[in-house]
Amino acid sequence: MPWIVLVVAGLLEVVWAFTMKQSEGFSRFWPSVVTLIAMVLSVVCLAWSMRSLPLGTAYTIWTGIGAVGAFIVGIAFLGEAMNATRILAAVLIVSGLVLMKLSSPA
C-alpha cells in the first residue's frame, strides 16, 4: 500500500505542476486552488508513504514521477519541445527510479 500511495503522491505532483503553469503566477483563481489542494495532498501522501518506506527511496520516487510526468504533460498539452536529449534525460530518470525501487527493502 505505501507504494501505491507514493505513486498517487507523484501523480498529484504532476497535477500541481501543470495547474501552477495554468494559474499564470497564481493570478487565475481555479487553477491556483487546484494547485494548492494538489500540493497539500501530494505532500500528505508522501509523508504517509514515508512511514514505511526509506526517506531516500520515497523522496526520489516522488520527485522522479513529478519530473517525468511534468515532462510528458509539457510535451502532450503545452507544446514543449521533444528531442533526443530530453527523451534520454527522461529515460535516465526512469532508470534511476526503477533501480531505487529494486534496491529498496520495503
UniProtKB/TrEMBL annotation:
Residue spans crossing the bilayer: 27-47, 59-78, 84-102
Pfam name, any one: Multi_Drug_Res
UniProt subcellular location: Cell membrane
Predominant subcellular localization, coarse grouping: membrane
Membrane-topology annotation of the record: Multi-pass membrane protein
Keyword Magnesium recorded: no
Keywords recorded for this protein, A-Z: Cell membrane, Membrane, Transmembrane, Transmembrane helix, Transport
InterPro entries: EmrE-like, Small_drug/metabolite_transptr, Small_multidrug_res
Coiled coil (UniProt feature): none
N-terminal signal peptide: none
PANTHER family: GUANIDINIUM EXPORTER, SMR FAMILY PROTON-DEPENDENT DRUG EFFLUX TRANSPORTER SUGE
Sequence similarity: Belongs to the drug/metabolite transporter (DMT) superfamily. Small multidrug resistance (SMR) (TC 2.A.7.1) family. Gdx/SugE subfamily.
NCBIfam families: PRK11431.1
Protein name: Guanidinium exporter
Source species of the chain: Methylorubrum aminovorans
